[in-house]
Known about the structure:
The first copy, chain A, is built from 14 helices and 13 strands. By secondary structure, chain A is of the alpha/beta class. Chain A folds into 2 domains: about 5-115 and about 365-385, 2-Layer Sandwich (Enolase-like, domain 1); about 125-340, Enolase-like C-terminal domain (TIM Barrel, Alpha-Beta Barrel). In chain A, strands 10-9-8-7-6-5-4-11 form an 8-stranded parallel beta sheet. The interface between A and B is large, with 67 and 66 residues.
Amino acid sequence: MRIDAVDLFYFAMPEITSEADGSQDALLVRVAAGGHVGWGECEAAPLPSIAAFVCPMSHGVCKPVGASVLAQRLEGPDDIARIANRVGYDSMDLLQAAHTFSGVEMALWDVLGKQRGEPVWSLLGYDTNHAKIPYASLLFGDTPQQTLDRGRKARADGFKAAKFGWGPIGRGTADQDGDHFVAAREAIGPDGHLMVDVGQIFGEDVDIAAARLPALDASGALWFEEPFQAHAFEAYAALAQRPSAVQIAGGEGAHNVAMARHLMSYGKVGFIQIDCGRIGGIGPAKMIADLASASGITYVNHTFTSHLALSASLQPFAGLADHRICEYPAQPKQLAVDLTRNHLERNPVGEIRAPDAPGLGIDVDLPSLAGYLVDAEIKVNGQVIYRTPKLT
Amino acid sequence: MRIDAVDLFYFAMPEITSEADGSQDALLVRVAAGGHVGWGECEAAPLPSIAAFVCPMSHGVCKPVGASVLAQRLEGPDDIARIANRVGYDSMDLLQAAHTFSGVEMALWDVLGKQRGEPVWSLLGYDTNHAKIPYASLLFGDTPQQTLDRGRKARADGFKAAKFGWGPIGRGTADQDGDHFVAAREAIGPDGHLMVDVGQIFGEDVDIAAARLPALDASGALWFEEPFQAHAFEAYAALAQRPSAVQIAGGEGAHNVAMARHLMSYGKVGFIQIDCGRIGGIGPAKMIADLASASGITYVNHTFTSHLALSASLQPFAGLADHRICEYPAQPKQLAVDLTRNHLERNPVGEIRAPDAPGLGIDVDLPSLAGYLVDAEIKVNGQVIYRTPKLT
């Protein structure tokens, strides 16, 4: 088959706040090929990502993503890799291209799986689809009490693992942060997995980050996530050397395979967290899962949006039995819930699995999303090069 | 003073070809503050970069670049660094932000220099503005004869140094590439500096790249530029280990300080090449110049567009006497020539210097650029969030 059409849909909540909550808007990608339709989602700023798909060419290696995708042959996984290489080379000077292509690439796997009647994890070469322990991904409250309340709600919802992130952590003293860690542990219980995410708050300052290690140890945190900027491999490695039982985690900012590889090889993280909506899609994420598995590093998905993104993010490590924990957006905005008709519900023992259905196994009901649709238009020299497609 | 306005102008040649020639379009940035006007230029895809400045916020750390710049205080270099940090953190999930901000940051230095009546290199802390040997930056011809002709023209134009790049190199055999290197050396003469740029053609394949080393050695090339993808530090380091007198060069793809630093520390390049229009502007480039200088690595600008970009790119290493070579766009498209009223002409011994005038010392004559102006408009929910400004 050939790639007949790629449509980009920009959705948003009625109000966007400055919370670090990536589920407040969405860039949904629809790919049509050979009579089938596939879906993907970019974890990215919608408008610049759309512009990167449709913009005029600047020069030979600064082409729009669309130029490398539309009308291409799509017969098997090799074609997806070939298209990805094309985007990588022909758009090497278009920084946003990786984020744009991430959603497109997911949709290519979805189309291919539907055409073959095969789940994506199987197309990736896995013969078993292992269940994962979902952790509730939550934001820290403004106060330890709020943190406690959010964590208790997650526990009451049946989660045995929770990650708390962002909020006030790193903006006050290490002791104040410690109070939140204590509250988080109390909420999730002594037997739960507890993880902490600080969203790059320490820049490259190893000492200030390390000042949080004793409280993290005391609360029995499994990992300490994104203490530093996404490229600060030296700082990651230095923190990993400090005496502590807590492992360092990171990787959601990786927008190509090399960046994630370097966070493992140079940055010495114990957990590598990949967002398929940023790294270039499912194929690059699978490469990192393979590398992590071979290096004794645990692969974890990064997912804070819809269950379409969640299904995509489970595929690259669905076949890795020992990589047990997965991120699960526990309190997403309603947009992320409504984006898909079906959801990856937890089974009686509280675990989830990637769908066994063809492709990504997730249904999108476009007409039901009318209330979230952002009407956007881009014109160049009088010609409309992008207009929000109809919801049909 | 406060930053009163930022205007983005998208210009393009009437025809854009798939040549690797970045001077075919331009994104010019004008900043107004305290009654002064400053200019900068992004080396980036114009439309996605514009979108990254004006787009709606997605969440707390996926804000448009404009939100971190407009109405900010601008009293000294510390304010520019503060604004840069704001962009880095508040736009951490907006990949294109670094390219967008690069042109804005240049313009901030230009404004500040004009307000103080001081050149940017002086604001950066240098007390001397050293002359540089400009190398003609040329594309390889389709045939060795064309390469010879282009090189001879540069030599006749008085250049004692030339860099040939892209074209057919790496697409045929090592012997075919060698014929081009011989032609290039013949053109520039036995006493000229010869450099070779292959534009990431070898991906991460060290052996295929290394197969070019004997011919590069035979032609007395000073450096072998961008053999690999911008993030392929392991491949860079492996090639640097191979027996050859040729040093490896790279860095133009760096879109933050850490990436360029890693190409030096992990990638072991001998020359680090920074494009101020991509790395985040002049401030980050100066950090890399300092690091290179302290590490025995030679700093070189990457500039393939206008003399506004050239002036900006000279500032970060203007005070480094031992870093002698600079890239000089020798055959830019007419747009890049017309973009500025004055140009950095070579002195009687064929060298150039950053202007001693306030700011970047480059005049832009907007009304004269009418023929190149691209008329663009971005609308979101019925509201125009970007429209090409008037040329006044």
